[in-house]
Specification:
The protein is built from three helices and no strands. The protein is mostly helical. The radius of gyration is 37 Å and the shape is elongated. The relative contact order is 0.03.
Length: 110
């Protein structure tokens, strides 16, 4: 067998019209099998990832401790923000309940 002849690309022997017809005929014969195999591959990959994330998921004790600490810090931070909002609400409430003071009209001559 001559390897050079197999690896050498000869443009004169190449017929694009015949290659297109061959590809179209292959597609018409096998498109259902291609779609079904692609669907099964994607479904299998999805099931595998779902199984891995659902049943094989696990954290080390160190990772669990770090997560718990980060959650506590986040809750404390949000508690501080909540206190700031409450202070702002009470400030606005006192400003609303205070007696109305007239403001001089700067456009009216006195």
């Amino acid at each position: 067998m001559d390897v050079k002849k197999i690896l050498k690309f000869n443009k004169a022997d190449w017929n694009f019209k015949k290659a297109g017809k061959t590809a179209a005929a292959f597609w018409m014969r096998h498109h259902q099998i291609i779609f079904i195999s692609f669907f099964l591959f994607v479904a299998g990959a999805g099931l595998f990832l779902w199984y891995q994330n659902l049943y094989k998921a696990g954290w080390s004790e160190e990772r669990k401790r770090q997560h718990a600490l980060s959650q506590n810090q986040e809750v404390n931070l949000k508690e501080g923000e909540f206190r700031k909002v409450l202070e702002e609400i009470t400030r606005r409430k006192t400003a609303f309940n205070s007696e109305y003071q007239t403001i001089k009209d700067i456009f009216r001559p006195y």
